[in-house]
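Format notes (please read before filing issues)

Several people have asked whether sequences and structure tokens are stored in separate files. They are not. Every record keeps both together, in the order shown below: the sequence lines, then the token lines. Line labels are part of the format and must not be stripped during preprocessing.
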Amino acid sequence: MPRTYDTPVALSALLSRYEGTGEPLSCERVAQGLLNRGYHLATTRGRYFLKHHLDGDCEAIAHQHDAVTRLGALGLPVVLPLADADGRTVTVIGDACYTLHPWIDGRHRDGAELTCAQSRRLGALLGLVHTCLERVMRQSPVPEAEARTESADPSDTFELIDELLGLARANRPRDSFDELAEHRLLERRSLLERHAHQRPEAGAEPATGWVHGDFHPLNLLYRGAEPAAILDWDRLGVQPRAEEAVRAAAIFFVRPLGTLELSKVRPYARAYRAATGASPAELAAAVHRVWWERLNDFWMLRWRYQLLDRRADPQFPAAAALSVWWTREYEAVCDAFTG
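Then the structure lines:
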């Protein structure tokens, strides 16, 4: 096998810290993912997933690994990190932070590939994640950074829209994405002007708990029809649990034209509520907060125009259309999550 490397780390030095992993043969970047960097690493002794944590917070990563290990003991499908000869699951080389995991064969599946029965199992799985986290994280201190913030202020959003409009209009060479961005920004401003009075009330704090933090198709690996592994626990934290259920559904079940497949959202949400004991009223409140959040959110355009990072561009057409459709079909969406 040829030795092909696509990572700056000294692989032999890293692998020498782990017993029985062999010598590196190839290391190829995994294409999916927007934040940390992942690599498919083949050695003389097997295959591994090498993760380069760009934030480098080793203490937080070790905390996540401890939680994942305890979740695995409860039967959740997770990938346990490998420990080095000193029992550490986080390796620091220079100023870079790495973790090593067994390679899991499987594939990602979005909601279009799931049957209604599989959608039901997906909701039950996320519910199980939340109830198991409640058990294993009971004694863990809540991070200060997880303090609940107020819902988005539309006056701030209007300022951001004006800024992004200026950047989109000035972009050269101008392309079809810039035209779509301008259209959606103007459309969103009009929607916010009509619905500003529906901003979630301050002080109406939802029930919070430990959540995965980033539950979507690229972080769930299937083997056949069943989930084989829940991946990427980097955003493990304390948030309103029902909101994670709504956000996940809005990613899994969004169609290319920006509508939700409500026939699959309904069994998914019913299974989630059954697994967690969440009430229809709790889900309805979460639907409202996530709808408002999306109505005021422009992170994909901020990446493109402020950070000059276009990796999220392919997600923008469906995500932007979803906010418009969700506003128009608000009652139907709420009914799918609560009925």
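For reference, the curators noted about this record: The radius of gyration is 21 Å. The chain has two domains: 4-102, 111-141+149-338.
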